[in-house]
Amino acid sequence: MHALKQIHRVLQPRGVLGDLRPDRYPDPGQPHPHLPSVRWASGGREIPAGVLEKAPENLRRHRTATLELQRAIGEGLFVLESTEAFPFRYHFRTEEIFETFLRTGWKQTTLGAPARRRLHGLRRAHPAGQIVVIEPFRLNVLKKQGGG
Questions:
Q1: pTM for the whole thing?
Q2: Please, are residues 57 and 108 in contact by the beta-carbon 8 Å criterion?
Q3: DSSP label at residue 34
Q4: How many percent of the chain have pLDDT more than 70?
């Protein structure tokens, strides 16, 4: 909430804030998060392999961020002008590039053993292809309310 209050403080009256982030908990009360799906794309088809698993502390941060945004709206700091959920697609030409990205870009994210085996099997069955990760994202456009 501290960051949202600081943003509110420095924004001009009726200033606009864009909040773009992974959409893990559109409703923070939901029991299961929306996780990125992993697919093998080959020959114009995408075949599901599984989902990327997020560390519990990572998921808690996502839920907390959604709750804090709702709280800032409830306190009248911002009005939600619009919101859009959409799938963001990452493409990886090789498994090595994908593994490097998991280690360096998504440090608290893993591909579980069943999904990994399925991905390997799909790669063997359809060698001309690539890994596609589809991650749910949300863009919230908020307008500053109140003075100062």
A1: 0.84
A2: yes
A3: -
A4: 98
